[in-house]
Amino acid sequence: MKQTSNLRGERRMSNFKSIDRRGFGTLALAGLAATSFASVPAQAATPDEIKAKGTLTVGVMTDYPPFGGVDAQQHPEGYDADVAKALADSLGVKLELVPVTGPNRIPYLLTNKVDVLIATLGITGPRLKQVLFSNPYSTLTIYVLAPKSLAIKTPEDLKSVSISVSRASTELAALEKIAPKGTPIKVYDDDALSIQALISGQTQALGASTVVLAHLNKNFPQLNIEPKILLNEQANGMAIRKADTVLVDYANKFIADIVKNGELSKINQKWFGFPLPKLPPMPTF
User: Fold this and answer.
1) First vs last Cα of the chain: how many Å apart?
2) Which of 25, 31, 45, 160 could form a disulfide bond with 16, CB atoms 3.0-4.6 angstroms apart?
3) Biggest alpha carbon distance in the chain?
4) Is 35's pLDDT higher than 50?
5) Could you give the CA distance from residue 254 to residue 261 in angstroms, rounded to a whole number?
6) Hey, how many other C-beta atoms are within 10 angstroms of the C-beta on 285?
């Protein structure tokens, strides 16, 4: 059974305060920024038009460090922001970063509020019906995460385990494929809330990536969280509107260049502490 949880007001703010500042408590900022940018649509469709405009507008996550977080001044930072900066530099234009959330990423792109998404967006069949993707520029592995004391070895074991997961996420899609009928899956509006549900004991497990696992083990070691069941190995691509085929070609060449010259590996080393692993091939569906 899938349940939808919506936390509001002081309860939501309390949840944010219990999470590390550079962690997952920044969706309030993203919401405010989203409102402020709503009336400034991006119109560029080709690299030449972006150069003529003088600014590359990129949607990035701010609730999913180290891919996307905020610095001490509440400005977006992270792996994706650094890739966006490198892309803007290659075009010779200024960079404008627009915070987005999991559910509003693609709508922001399709309504021309950003030129491109560099927002930890997994390449999936359903998403390919809406947008074009560049070749993968990053990857992450998604698991069911839970305390070591919780006995979970097979998908069948999930039937009696409450699991938090974020709306419109690849984690949710993968979990629904393997979870037995009746599994108490609780869907939250964003990553901050789904993670907080596990931390606070509202759920017993969490559908999330190894990025989240590293955050939990660093900041909440008492929970003894470990990966239980592999859900997906996700290839992340830049998302671009379907009409913008020239921009996709440019993005693919850009990614190939920064892989070859080592710049992308340096970005990976900066944010994850190790060189860039081999990127997965473009998924086929």
Assistant:
1) 28
2) 25
3) 58
4) no
5) 11
6) 9
